[in-house]
Specification:
Blueprint: H1 11-20, H2 40-54, H3 57-60, H4 87-122, H5 125-132, E1 140-142, E2 148-149, E3 156-159, E4 162-163, E5 165-172, E6 178-183, E7 187-188, E8 193-196, E9 200-207, E10 213-220, E11 223-230, E12 235-252, E13 261-274, E14 302-307, E15 324-328, E16 336-338, E17 342-343, E18 359-365, H6 367-378, E19 387-388, E20 396-401, E21 406-407, E22 415-420, E23 426-437, E24 440-446, E25 450-453, E26 457-459, H7 460-466, E27 472-475, E28 478-481, E29 483-488, E30 491-493, E31 502-509, E32 512-516, E33 528-533
Parallel strand pairs: 3-7, 5-13, 14-22, 23-31
Antiparallel strand pairs: 1-5, 2-5, 3-4, 6-11, 7-8, 8-12, 9-12, 10-11, 12-13, 14-15, 16-18, 17-18, 18-20, 19-22, 20-21, 23-24, 23-25, 26-30, 27-28, 29-31, 32-33
Length: 538
């Protein structure tokens, strides 16, 4: 965009105009061309200087005074008539008036300066500095205006009365229960651009989980300050701060400084994580890694989302990101999670021996989340909807710890979620339930066709957990309670051949037989037998 030019010419241009006797240079009222008029002492001071330097050249010509805007029409008098005959006396008198005025100005100005200095000396300056100069804390991993969404540029573009969203990331724990972010940027609009004079109608519009964290926001001359407070619950919450801006300190796209109105609204979106306690519970066992332990350098701090059709695509640049994209780990806490800390089993050999790094923890990427995020942002522009290439693929990396710090292997990063733009084929599968009493099959039940897609995995344990009523089964009008004992296979991967998509669950139970005897070898009564009794029967 072309830079706006000031309404007055350059200094060199002004000199040329003066020599030519033209008035385009606007020398007479430079402050008015800025939208400000000289008033008070400054106006009197400037007028006196003008008279001392130039006298009244216009009045000697019979013209109305034009101050210094130009020499006027061609002179028709001799040069010695440009000044009145008593010019030396006038100049001496004006010098006296000027000196008297300056002495008076200095006297009162000095007194005012001393009074102001005394007031400032008694004021609580430390409190002022803390209030007027808010500072972003280190646990604000990403300030809200480090980049603008959806665009990434130097200025926040205002369109249709709405500024671009700011997206921030905050992490709280017992050691860092509070955080402060300072959101400040330059806004760029079609008719006015500049820095905000302040923020109005500030409101925390949404907090998805107030038990995790809360926030308050306030306007300062240094920006919109958002203070976060750790809650009692652990987890993640999204906090949305809304605000309006009515005036800017303009820098471009305006005619003069007095045009400052710029009414628009904006939103800041914060992902706030509460990690709770920061200390380990077992002797020598460290706490889980935190967001601070994730890599940040270059692409190592990213998760790539790439299509198998274009394996060589570079997701970091739009020109090379064919069917690809990337997610910054520290900016998307919903895209990953840390598992439990466990002992080093020696899998890394001499690279990370258990004697030096006794603890391990796995970082696991939520592939479905990454895929959904990519589809929401790029499906319309980068090849349509994509799908996971392998639904069972686990994207993870293992971190090691010496008990104090966590370390990662550079070779494992960046992590990649592989996708495909080919939709998986639909298929079906069946669940067979077999019931056994005392080791003998007494019933076999086959369910109806269940919908799925090729490549899906069906877990037997998940089926049993989702259907607890399958443990109860009636045989010969007698209801039995069975226990799940296993499956074949334990995990079924669906294929294109429907006949092969079968998973069989095995349920078992035992019954008891009670025999009554008279103890007299049958002389009183014969043996009385009661079979197929369940535990608890009378």
């Amino acid at each position: 965009m072309k830079k706006a030019e000031p309404p007055w010419p350059s200094p060199r241009r002004r000199r040329v105009l003066w020599r030519r006797g033209r008035s385009e240079g606007r020398f007479g009222k430079p402050l008015e061309t800025m939208g400000r008029k000289a008033r008070g002492c400054r106006a009197f001071f400037c007028a006196m200087l003008d008279r001392l330097r130039f006298g009244k050249p216009a009045e000697t010509l019979g013209l109305q005074s034009q101050r210094l805007r130009g020499v006027g029409p061609k002179l028709d008098r001799l040069p010695d008539t440009l000044r009145p005959s008593n010019f030396p006396q006038q100049r001496e008198e004006q010098h006296k008036i000027m000196k008297k005025f300056i002495r008076k100005l200095l006297k009162h100005g000095l007194a005012a300066l001393v009074a102001l200095t005394m007031c400032l000396g008694m004021a609580p300056t430390d409190a002022w500095a803390a209030e007027d100069t808010p500072v972003k804390t280190d646990n604000v991993i990403q300030t809200a205006y480090s980049q603008f969404n959806p665009n990434t540029n130097l200025n926040n573009t205002v369109y249709g009365g709405v500024a671009e969203n700011g997206c921030g990331t905050v992490v709280l724990d017992d050691e860092h229960p509070t955080a402060t972010d300072v959101a400040f940027c330059k806004y760029w609009g079609a008719h006015i651009s500049g820095w905000p004079n302040g923020f109005q109608m500030i409101e925390v519009e949404q907090n998805t989980n107030p038990s995790v964290a809360t926030a308050v926001a306030r306007s300062t001359e240094n920006g919109l300050v958002v203070d976060f407070q750790k809650g009692a619950g652990t987890g993640t919450t999204t906090i949305v701060v809304a605000f309006t801006i009515t005036t800017l300190r303009p820098t471009e796209n305006i005619a003069s400084d007095d045009q400052t109105y710029a009414g628009f609204i904006g939103y800041l979106y914060y992902t706030v994580t509460n990690n709770g306690s920061g200390s380990g519970s077992e002797s020598g066992k460290p706490q889980k890694p935190t967001i601070y332990d994730l890599p940040t350098k270059n692409q190592n701090g990213c998760v790539y989302v790439k299509c198998v059709t274009y394996p060589n695509a570079n997701p970091l640049y739009n020109s090379t990101a064919t069917h690809a994209g990337f997610i910054v780990l520290r900016n998307n806490v919903n895209a990953w999670s840390f598992g439990e800390v466990y002992e080093n089993d020696g899998r890394f050999g001499n690279i990370a021996p258990a004697s030096k790094y006794p603890w391990l923890c796995d970082l696991t990427i939520d592939s479905e989340y990454c895929l959904d995020l990519w589809n929401n942002n790029y499906a319309s522009t980068k090849g349509g909807t994509h799908y996971l290439r392998d639904n069972d693929a686990v994207v993870n990396a293992t971190l090691v710890s010496d008990g104090n710090e966590w370390y990662y292997f550079k070779e494992e990063f960046p992590l990649t979620v592989w996708t495909t733009h080919e939709a998986p084929a639909a298929t079906t599968y069946k669940v067979v339930r077999e019931y056994y009493i005392n080791g003998q099959k007494v019933a076999n039940r086959t369910g109806g066709d269940q919908k799925g897609t090729v490549g899906d995995t069906i877990s037997a344990d998940e089926l049993v957990e989702a259907n607890p009523n399958w443990s109860n089964y009636t045989i010969n009008d007698v209801e039995y309670v069975f226990a799940y004992k296993g499956a074949e296979p334990t995990t079924l991967t669906l294929g294109a051949t429907v006949a092969s998509n079968v998973i069989t669950l095995r349920y078992e139970t035992e019954t008891y037989t009670v025999i009554y005897r008279d103890g007299a070898n049958g002389e009183v009564f014969g043996d009385e037998s009661h079979g197929m009794l369940k535990e608890g029967d009378n």
